[in-house]
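This protein record is not my work; I was only asked to verify it. The record follows directly below this note.
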Amino acid sequence: MKLRLQNPLLVVADMERSRNFYKTVLDLETVSDLGANVVLEGGLALQTLDSWAGFLGKTPGEIAFGGNDSEIYFETGDFDGFLRRLFETPSVELVHAPLEHRWGQRVVRLYDPDRHVIEVGEAISDVCRRFRDSGLDEEGIARRMDVPVEYVREQLKMA
């Protein structure tokens, strides 16, 4: 029997506040709204705290937010544009300022209203293209990113 992942789910204290955050900051539209459960573009599901606690047979006070032990990851083909929009939203709390990982990908991490960690990264295909445009060949990009050259070729096809 093969299992198939359906929807990553985040528990939220205030559904409307969370929906507004994901729409305003990440530009995610609502795909399905069942009241206590909302599915956003890309399959991210939001579940109300009360309903989630009920599913688990817990009280809402037994559910902890802000553990910094996981994240939801997004990529964008316009990282600089995303940063401009992000910094125009003063209520957003950053986990850390934008940074470049050792493999060259630029990322930023932020908290959603319930302190779930959200990472937004530059699309890997854009990283490969940026390195190619700076003068590196496929082998040089692979060495710079510490990945197989076949992976670089696949990413450059998408760029």
